[in-house]
Amino acid sequence: MTASPSEAPPPQGLPAGVRAQILATEHWSLLATRSMTWSEVMSRITIHLTVASASLVVLALFAQASGFDTAFKVMAIGLAAAVLVMGTLTQIRVVNASVDDASTILGMNRLRAAYLDLDPGLAPYFITSPHDDQQGLMQTYLMGWPRSTLSHVAGSTSIFLTVVNAIVAGTLGALVADAAGATSLVVVVAGVLCGAGYVAGQLVIGQRSFATPRQESRFPTPGDR
Q1: Could you report the per-residue pLDDT of 91-116, keeping only the tens digit for each?
Q2: Which positions ≥6 away from 31 have C-beta within 8 Å?
Q3: Which among 165, 189, 167 is positioned nearest to 177, based on CA atoms?
Q4: What range defines the domain where residue 82 resides?
Q5: What is the rounded distance in angstroms from the CA atom of residue 157 to the CA atom of residue 35?
Q6: Is 223 inside a domain boundary?
Q7: Counting C-beta atoms within 10 Å of the first and last residue's C-beta, which end of the chain has fewer, N or C?
Q8: Which candidate, 50, 52, 75, 49, places its Cα nearest to that of 62?
């Protein structure tokens, strides 16, 4: 049976103050790693959106110069494909960062369990969880509020990028169908199918990424053992 924070024996050999200092150092290290990761991810997203915006400007200027002829269609398909590739690579980075972020949160939850081993009286002052299981992870993400995780997931960076990339994928599909001489209905259907397919694919990838078991829970939420 896995020990809970109250049952786990305190570490031996060092004074409580020294142990607290070591735990705090690790805590700040995890916080710094988390901050740097998301700073890098946000920079990647900014670059991606800047390139997407610049592509629209290029297409507008190109259309003014040459009209909506074959050259314009080729240019539009090429730029849409490039933006989609860049967006997909950015989204892969976001998914990886999200998985790493969840592991970081679990690590900090374990540190809170260690703080409670040193002083169980601290428990009423924590709004985040000292448990390193799925329930503890979500309690920390939601900052202790008993709200649904749906809004948390729907408003996430990964879903935002999925929507943006799906719009680009749908546009690319419609452009290819139009360049092939398809009717207006086929062009619309191609765009919708490409966009919906991209969303479905990314949701499956995201679900599999987060469904993969992480490290074994050492401090599970009481009642979830």
Answers
A1: 999 989 988 999 999 999 999 999 99
A2: 108
A3: 189
A4: 16-211
A5: 15
A6: no
A7: N
A8: 75
DSSP 8-state assignment for residue 142: T
Question: What residues contact 56, with CB distance under 8 A and at least 6 apart?
Answer: none
CB count within 10 Å of CB 102 equals: 18
- Taking only the tens place, the pLDDT of each residue in 135-180 is 898 889 888 776 677 777 888 888 999 999 999 999 999 999 999 9
In the DSSP assignment, the letter for residue 181 is T
In sequence order, the 6+-apart residues with CB closer than 8 A to the CB of 8 are 113, 117, 218, 219
Residue 109 lies in a domain: yes
Task: For the chain, report the end-to-end CA distance as a whole number of angstroms.
Answer: 8
**Tokens in use for 124?**
């009423």
Whether residue 71 is contained in a domain is answered as yes
What the block records as the tokens of 92 is 């892969």
Could you tell me if residue 13 is left (phi over 0), alpha (psi between -120 and 50 degrees) or otherwise beta?
Answer: left
Number of domains present in the structure of the chain: 1
The one-letter code for the residue type at 23 is L
CB 216 within 8 A of CB 1: no
Q: Considering only CA atoms, give the Rg of the chain.
A: 24
Residue type, 206: G
